[in-house]
Specification:
Structural class: mainly beta
Radius of gyration: 14 Å
Order of helices and strands: EEEEEH
Largest sheet: 3 strands, antiparallel
Strand order of the largest sheet: 3-4-5
Number of helices: 1
Oligomer: single chain
Number of strands: 5
Bound molecules: zinc ion
Strand content: 35-45%
């Protein structure tokens, strides 16, 4: 079970989602977890807490594939 965040309802919820995998043109094989919101039934992405970075905000343009689009790398 993972934690998901619904942008429509602005809530977090726990659910057992499904893994979606695709091949990204830039990053290669990617995957993420999806689950349906219990309130509105929208498909939501897994919630990830904002990463703590020691630098400023300029460190956001190109993250590694695992940090950007791939949520299934077993962190
Ligand atoms: Zn919702």
């Amino acid at each position: 079970m993972e934690t998901y965040f619904c942008k429509s309802c602005n809530i977090k919820f726990d659910a057992t989602g499904v893994k979606e995998e695709w091949i990204d043109a830039a990053f290669g094989p990617c995957s993420k977890m999806l689950a349906n919101c219990p309130e509105c039934n929208a498909v939501c992405d897994e919630y990830r807490a904002p990463k703590q970075t020691s630098g400023g905000q300029s460190f956001h343009s190109h993250t590694p594939s695992c940090g950007s689009c791939c949520g299934g790398c077993g962190l």
